[in-house]
Structure formats: C-alpha cells, structure tokens
Amino acid sequence: MPLSPPTIRRALKHTRTITIQAFARDDGLWDFDAQIIDCKTRDIALASGVRPNGSAIHDLSLRITIDTSLNIIDANAVSDAVPYPGFCNTIGPEYKKLIGLNLMQQFRQGVKQRLSGINGCTHITELAQILPTAAVQAFAGDVLNTRDGANDDAQHTQQPFQLNRCHALRLDGPAVVQYYPRWAI
Predict the structure, then answer these.
(1) Do 66 and 86 reside in the same domain of the chain?
(2) Is residue 21 part of a domain?
(3) How far is it, in rounded angstroms, from Cα 70 to Cα 53?
(4) Closest listed residue to residue 68, CA positions, set 25, 103, 107, 30
(5) Are 145 and 173 in contact (CB under 8 A)?
(6) Confidence of residue 155 (pLDDT cuts 50, 70, 90)
(7) Looking at the structure, do residues 34 and 120 belong to the same domain, yes or no?
(8) Which residues face 63 on adjacent strands?
(9) Are residues 183 and 102 in the same domain?
(10) Which pTM value belongs to this model?
(11) CB 63 within 8 A of CB 78
(12) C-alpha pair distances (Å), 103 with each of 44, 111, 115, 133
C-alpha cells in the first residue's frame, strides 16, 4: 500500500538516494557497496561555490567486506562529491576502523565509538548504520537459515534466523503460529 496522496500542493526540493548492493565473492567473503547521493532541485550556493541544479552535493560510498559470520574484514570509503572539497574527502581512510566489528554484535555502538562527530563523516557514518539489516537481507536463504514453515521438519533443530527479531515474527505472535508453528510459544 503506498503512502496516502498529499492533500496540499508541494514542490520537490531535495533527493537523498541510498543504495546498497551485496556481492558474494569467489573467495567466500561478501562485499557490501553502499552509496548515498544528495541532490537539490535548484542551484545552491555553498561556501565552496555554487552547485548547479541536479548535481550531487554528496556522493559518498562505503564498501565493507565481511565473512559469513558478519565480521568486517576490510572497509573502504570514498567521497566523490562533497560540499568542502579538499576537506570532507580526506576522511575515507578512517573507515578502516570498522575492521574487526561484527554487524550483529553491538555494531552501531562500535561505529559511534570509532567514527562519530569529528572522527568521521556524518553521512558515511550514517550509511554504515544501516548495513546490518542489509546484510541480513542479503544473507537470507544463502547464508542464514530462513526456510519457510512449509519445509520445517524435525531434522531442522535450529530456529530460523528471522524469528523473534521483529514485531511480525515474534514467537508469541500469529505470523509465527501460522508460518512457523513448531517455534510458536
């Protein structure tokens, strides 16, 4: 169901696009390429100069390489468009500090400790924060057991990964009763 239609006329002023792509590598690791792009619908005067309508104010990318246990093995950040060239785009190497974190074990706190405020780029750090759920989606059915209830049999002794991790799939909820009855409480 889409959002309700606006009831008052409005004009688009800004677009932020976030893209995350997950790649299974031949060596068994996974790359997650995340990008954030900010564009205005008009020319905008910045301290560093005017950005023409439609040109990126931010075009920032973060790649993390993880193993199937969700441990970060490598990280790389680049800034292709920034509001303060020569300054914003020098922070990329700091994102190596993500190496060693696990996406499912206090990852967001680790990112905050290592890269918040003046220790990182607000936008790249924000982009890093959404990687855990993107990794879970990418791993679903390939790395993580998310089999459906129709195939749930006695030989499977491990609860499917996604159960009890959100409102809809809480163990005492009707969706689990319907689709994963063996795991319902």
Answers:
(1) yes
(2) yes
(3) 40
(4) 30
(5) no
(6) low
(7) yes
(8) 33, 76
(9) no
(10) 0.87
(11) no
(12) 37, 10, 15, 9
Mean predicted lDDT score pLDDT of the chain: 93
Residues 18 and 102 in one domain: yes
CB-CB contact of 111 with 94 (8 Å): no
One-letter amino acid for residue 58 of the chain? H
Determine contact, residues 58/82, Cβ cutoff 8 Å.
yes
> Could you list the residue range(s) of the whole structural domain that residue 50 is in?
14-139
Are 81 and 118 part of one and the same domain?
yes
H/E element, 74: strand 72-81
Q: Measure the CA–CA gap between 105 and 30, rounded to whole angstroms.
A: 18
Q: Are 105 and 134 in contact (CB under 8 A)?
A: no
Q: How confident is the model at residue 141 (pLDDT cuts 50, 70, 90)?
A: confident
In whole angstroms, what separates CA 19 from the centre of its chain? 8
Residue 3: inside a domain, yes or no? no
How many structural domains are present in the chain?
Answer: 2
Over residues 64-105, the pLDDT tens digits come to: 999 999 999 999 999 999 999 999 999 999 999 999 999 999
Cβ–Cβ < 8 Å for 171, 183: yes
